[in-house]
Queue: 4 jobs
Job 1
Amino acid sequence: MSLACAICGKTAARGNNVSHANNRRKRTFKPNLQRIRASVNGQPKYIRACTDCIRSNKVEKAIRPSLIVD
């Protein structure tokens, strides 16, 4: 399972934890990925998308057939 957004390709970034005494430790900044059911090429599929893409409507969510009421 990759730590990358299926929409924008955002991946983990590297940096430092910096303490008050200015001590530095390596760390990674991971994207906030969510497993969502999206419509990919007209078919529902589970993908991992970051919350930025979900909030900005770059992801077209799939509608479950049981929830459609006529």
Job 2
Amino acid sequence: MYTAIYIAFAIAGVFFITRTIPINAVMAMIQPFRSLAAYGNGLRLLMFWLGCVLASRNRAEPRPTTAGAAVVGCVLLMLLGPAVLQAQETNGGRWIGAWTLNVPQSTFGALLAPGIPPGFMVVSQTLTIEQTAQQLRLFGETVYSDVAGSHTVMDDNQLSLDGAPTRRGPISLALRLLDNSTFDIVSDVTLGVRRLSEVSHFSVSADGQTLTETKTQTERSAGAATDTPAGTGRASTSVLIFGRRTN
């Protein structure tokens, strides 16, 4: 009966959550805790049934079993604890953290946006990614040089996990969560008779220490859809390699 009620409440909870919160936000929230939930709930039911067995034996053969149950519980916690912690570390929010651009390992394509100063060159860049139940926040600092000297620019973007576009002046930004290691940021802006689209694909390495941003820019006519071939327009690709900061 306990198990049946437990499962029924779990199903009801999932139904309620998926009806009140966008599914992308739900997936983003449960990914870091999927393994913890599986181990924790499995351990809870296992200990319940173990208690039932010990109680049944205690009625049939009167003898103290509390100490035995405690020992078994401690052993199970010792066995499952490291696995839960490891699952939390490897599965939970793998892009979350502070990153530093490795300039020598990165490749920079031509910047298609107008107004790029002559002699533009990226000197350094830091990126921090944070996540809440509703948003992904990316902020950091870029140092670049041009013919006029060295300059520092701060950037801060907060994007909705459900994919709803965010407006920054004439620019539209939207987040696409792909899995626990990859996501895209899609931007679009119309400048006069030209339309500039960009897809930034972020991917975390298997060891969690490298974040690769593949930035693809495409220029089209202002009335063209984003899936229209570039035609006579221009295209550019940059691959930015970030290393995880540990301090």
Job 3
Amino acid sequence: MRMKRDRLTRGGCAVALTLIAGVCTLDRLAARQATAPGIQVLPVQGNVYLLAGAGGNISISTGYDGTLLVDAGRAEMSEAVLDNLEQLATLVQMPFFPLAPCVGPRCPGGAGTGAYTGGGSWTSQAVNGTVHSPGSLKPLRYIINTSDDSEHTGGNASIRATGMTFTGGNVARGAGGEGVGAEVWAHEAVLSRMVGEKVDIERHPQMTYDTPKYKWNGFFNGEGIELIHAAASTDGDTMVYFRYSDVISTGDILALDRYPAIHVDRGGSIQGTVDALNRVLDMAVAQNKSQGGTYIVPGHGRIADIGDVANYRNMVIRVRDRIQESIKNGQSLPQVKAARPTLDFDGMYGSPDAFIEAVYRSLSVR
């Protein structure tokens, strides 16, 4: 998402003229839905948005520093992802809404909420058109991968290529040192596995971390971001915590539409999954009992809150304990599957075969 002018005006939409009240975005939206009907962009909370339908959920922060993604979806969905990112960045980064007739603390919404949102503002409607007039969009700057799974990293190469890395002085960390392309981050285990499996180098992360928690590069779009390592689905999982927005992106540690995908051959484990879900519960704060407050973007499925995570964690623990008891009783994997230890959850999470096998293998090698 280099945000070139030809890309911004593609489809006959002149941005400088059509951002007033969002005119012409409906045409763009209809065109995208015709080619990628599964794509949806939804607000989560604060600066964070969810792009769903690209293979795995993508979390987006876009604003005055540019755009940051958590995961990149499948490779074949990259063009649809870029089209949606472009529109979202345009509407968020370049507001041009001199629409509210009221200015001041007595306006709906109260003082300081911004004139273009219908509330009070320190500025005047007479100058809003200048203060918020469209300029060049800030580029895509970072992609953070939550694991090495292709549903989350497949789009790295093509999406990264549309961005730009900003660095100080004459230093540039992009491919070849020229600063071209967004910077991809992940845990070092992701890079090691991609190198070992000879994955296309354009999909590799350029920057890695190897600590339990990493305070990522200071502030971005007005908030601190933390990368938190977990060995759950794989040994290189990363949870991303947007501290101001109070949103946690978990990757495949949490997937509300299916059982956990635990890749034992890639360092994942059932106990690591339980520990990671408990870590999310420790970090999250509910607004009212177990609802609201911190929102969680799973690797797959809908936006969640602390109650959803607790229910999912409890399911995982129950299944783990049942399979552990079967192993103590000397039952083989086919016997465990025949006993149907997930029966009371299958209506919610679908086929349990891969999950049961992963839990059995994980517990058997302890």
Job 4
Amino acid sequence: MKPHELRELSVAELESRLSDARGALSKLRFTRATTGQVENPSRFNQTKREIARLLTIITEKNTANG
């Protein structure tokens, strides 16, 4: 999702997406560790950027409310 679409979500929804993204990254790492290869290596960077984007928006929302 684009950042402006993520900013429309609540903090709880963002944290849920963050949990999902961290789980996806964990699965990617596990797959790479067990098989030695991944279907789409660029997915690592995409997932890490998504996690960073979610953390940034959650921080923005928490500082704006507090």
